Amino acid sequence: MYTEEQLNMAAERMENDYFKPLAQIREIRIPDAEYKLKHILSFLLRKKGQSLKWLPAYDEVAQWLGNNGRKGLLIMGNCGTGKSLLCCNAIPMLLHLEFYKNFYAIPAWSLSDVWKEHLNDDICIIDDVGMEPVGMRYGEPIHAFATMISNADQKGQLMILTTNLNTEDLLKKYDARVMDRIRGSMRTIAIPGASFR
Predict the structure, then answer these.
(1) Which contiguous run of DSSP H or E holds residue 141?
(2) Any residues with CB less than 8 A from the CB of 84 and at least 6 apart, and which?
(3) Which of 8, 67, 173, 184 has the most CB atoms around it within 10 Å of its CB?
């Protein structure tokens, strides 16, 4: 039987841009994540002349920030429930303060133009999943989001996603393979309720 050392050496020698057998999603463990998230959200909303209304689902986001269990994050909910504020502003700011790196959100509508630029990002944030157009290359359709999800699964890229679609709508939009990868690699948090706007 092979030793652990032999298996590790084989996996390391075989690794290339596509095959990453030891790839793991980045671990995030932010101490006092709830306090820090509230502080950042309050700051961002104050700049807009608004005040923070903390929702129970935000507790789940804070728990994920405290220990993501090497899983990405998918936040679902109606328009105006704070998904983009959390994932495109507050979480990137918190990650910047904790890890001294910049993370930027990609609007889903732009994926067909920019998806290749983000295949090697450590953390990839996509806002409004389900709104991306199908691109074309030499007359063939390109499903940028599906490609990015497959890439993230193969390379251990951490994905943070927002969507206005519910699970049923996502299943209609994407095939079983994409949805299985999302289920396996992400924590899903639903933010119920109507728009705050």
Answers:
(1) strand 140-142
(2) 105, 127, 128, 162
(3) 173
Phi, psi dihedral angles at 75 (to 5 degrees): -110, 125
pTM of the model: 0.84
Residue 90 has which token pair?
Answer: 């507050």
Q: Which two tokens stand for residue 43?
A: 């700051």
Least confident of 19-28, 32-41, 116-125: 19-28
More confident call, 116 vs 185: 185
- Name residues whose C-beta falls within 8 Å of residue 56's C-beta, 6 or more positions apart in sequence: none
Concatenate the DSSP letters of all residues of 80-129 into one string: TSSHHIIIIIIHHHHHHHHHS----EEEGGGHHHHGGGGTT-SEEEEEST
Q: How does DSSP classify residue 134?
A: P
Check if the beta carbon of residue 52 is closer than 8 Å to that of residue 41. yes
% of residues, the chain, pLDDT over 70: 88
